[in-house]
Amino acid sequence: MTITGGFVRARRAAASLSIILTLGATLTGTAGTAAAQDARAKRAPAQGTGSTQAIAVQMKNAIALTRGGKFDAGYAQLLTALNAADKLDDAQFVMEQYFDATATLRAVKRDDLAEKLFVRAFQGKAAAQSPPGNADVLLMYAILISDHARIAEAVPLYMKAIAAFNAYWGEGSEESLIASDKLAVALSANGSAASATNIGRRNFERAEKALGPDHRTTWKLANNYADMLREIGAPAKALELDLFAIEKRAKHYGENHLNTLVTVNNAGQDFLNLGRFDDARRYFRRHRAIATVLAPKDPSFAGQADAWLFYTDMLAAGDAAMPQADLERLEAIVANEENFADFLRIKAAVLAAGRREQRGERDAGMRLRETALAISTRAFTAQHPLSFEIKLGIAVALIATDPNRAVQNFTALDREMFDWMKREVGTSGDRAVAEAIRAHADHLLFAFGRFATGAGSAVAQPAFAAAVLRWKTLGGGDATALRRLETQMAGKDEETAALLRAALRLNGEKQELFSSGNIDDWARSVWQRQDATEKALNKRLDAIGVKLPQDPIRPSQLLAPDEAVINYFITRQWKADRQSKQPLAATVLYAIVETATSEPRVIDLGDPGRMVDTGVRTEIARLRATQAAAPDRDAKTADDKAADNKALDSKGRFQNLRARLFAPLEPALKDKTTLYVVPDGFLFAVPFSLLPGADGGLLEDRYTIRMLTSPEALIAIHARETLDRTGAMLLAGGLEYSQPGPMPLPGTKAEIEAIAKLARARRAPVEMLTGRGVSEAVLREAIGKARIAHLATHGFYHDSTASGLDTLWQSGIVLSGAGDSRWPLRDDKDGYLYAFEVMDWDLSGLDLLVLSACETGRGDESFVSGLRGLPTALGIAGARRALLTLWPVADEGTANFTVRFYEHLAEGLTYSDALRQTRRDARDGKVAGARDASVWAAFVLFEG
């Protein structure tokens, strides 16, 4: 909190991605001389000589003249003193004079002249000697540049300053931590929320370790880190830090101190943002009590406390009509720039706007919203979470008066937020921060979806459908363009196609690593490889005279007349406290149906939490807990009839799910035979093959249903979709695990031998891996040569909620030598291939990857990419298709089912049709051990 004058007021522009990504690296460096490394002591004033003493006096007089209003005379004396200093051999003294001179010019608002002196300072011989003063002057220079909307220029200066502080006084020193904090604050004010919070968190953690929890700089860093969290909408996390700082500051400074007042006010804001109004009032009253004592120093402190208390009362009143006097008082806060913080003025303007609109005074309400936006843009930037919230409020307000303008505003905000979000989530070092950032987009999409299916359905549906297409994976136009060009180049220019595939893989891996919070040496190595690949690709494209496609492409352009895409999308409206047990205020599931001949249709399917009723949840739980092991019999027996009854019961249980999930879409699908389904969230775990049809059979008896991991998979959906009869096949099964270790799977050896027999019959090259030799290294080398890879072993998936571990370390497959105990880490000898590890493999040469293992198709619901788990990792690695399972499956049933699948592939069926026919065979009793739905419905083919 800044008590007077609001937050930083200078206009700012968002930093470029290339600059911000550098913050993923550890902020270390050297000052350039060996002597600097030994200068660990606190800076001391230069030892005065006759010349230095005279210059110091001259500088003191120049500063007094300049600050006293005699600018011309003062500035002339500043230059005279600096000219004399530049001739000295005392480098530290010289840099101290430049520091004092530039600080003086900044104080009298002559930053133009201060900048000239900064440039001059680093052109002189003193700076070349790398004295400790370089760090201070560099930091001041960086602050000036960032205050003038030039953050991309400022970041390298901050980095040099931090490296100098690290070299002179140590990485955990107070000087170094404060310099890093200045960078974090500048980035936060410029809308670079992820990078700012990365640094803010690291600074606070280092301060606790290096300086201790009782050091005042540790409290300062906690306060500033809390500010950053509060700005991105993470008040619960901010509150923990503010309460820590209050305790320490009150004990050290006393209750009635400005520093205590600042943090008490911040905690009040945290409670306010969490909707805990009584707690907010308690802290704002405490603020006022401190302000009363401090009144002789600044009487405005009490007025600010009163304004916060009044705003709290008005907000707590909810939708109740606001008296005219209260409304006028709220608007007076908005107008009083001198006495009230910008954050309070913005909040007051938005609240007053809502009350004006409630009274039918829509023009007045819009003016208030525009005022709020002007304050936010000036104090922060147009690409800042606060500014986005205000712009969303403007778009929603326009729905009632001008739906066409509302669409324009929603669309403009969507594109602006998407570019910002892609950068921020892609550079976040904390998944909780990534999701806090994404929550702003969730609120936009929630309001946009309501608009598209309500008052603005006629004009907003195509725009909302286009927005969903972008947001589905955060891949956006870059990934789509890479995939489109790769499809065009494949088989024609393999050098270019290979670079395009590598760029796709590394882009996806980098984004996943950064958004998951794994900012370690591995993540940085991926970033470096991605950067090198991107440069190589650009060089190659320039050489052959080809450019990446820039025109947007919609699914309708990729569909045949008898095909349709069903793109499911969940929108969320969050409560203020996203860390609570029930953080969502509302969720809505939409189905966006696109065909080759019509505009996208957006269909509101309601609350997804109510879609899967108790019967369906019970049935899915049964399927996950069941391993059907009884083989089918040729004759009808009591057991056989029981199996039929169970299957019928499954249809009944899933009837309600079909009615809610699919029936509302049928009018748009009357003449369609192939459906491409893109799930979202929990729908990845729904066995679509079990959904009943309208005629008593199953839905997939009527349609060919193909599951896509993302809409852009349509670009290459028909490439290499039938078996390459001479393509190399890699088979792994009959693996030997450690003792104790996973349960042996004897049926997997027979499984791969049967598949090998089919492959050899068509004279396809086959490599078989079995026994104790199937390590990660062996498998990774072999899989790069194969067109089809079939791995028959154990798979695993664990919900990350209980452990707190990332899902990509909680899912994977088991290889040779695996034991009972394991700890997730990058180790190619531990027998466990985790999703985090396979994500870095190159699987782009595979037409099909079959994981004949348990629960390989599962993952955790994600607010970034829909699902996080092994399917995520395989898609990033480049596998075109992956046949996975949704729950544990019996050893015998799995083996027989997959062998039949390959038989149908050998007949010439596409991969999707072969799976569909194999399911039919299993249901008809033609696949031993696979008649029960717990076997045949477990398999799902994810494409793309």
UniProtKB/TrEMBL annotation:
Signal peptide (UniProt feature, chain positions): 1-36
Amino acid composition bias (Basic and acidic residues), ranges on this chain: 631-647
Entries under SUPFAM superfamilies matching the protein: TPR-like
Keyword Signal found: yes
Cross-referenced Pfam families: CHAT, TPR_12
InterPro entries registered for this protein in UniProt: CHAT_dom (IPR024983), NLR-like (IPR053137), TPR-like_helical_dom_sf (IPR011990)
Family matches, as Gene3D superfamilies: Tetratricopeptide repeat domain
Segments of this protein annotated with the region Disordered: 627-647
Record domain CHAT: where: 655-941
Keywords: Signal
Name the UniProt record assigns to this protein: CHAT domain-containing protein
Species this chain originates from: Bradyrhizobium quebecense
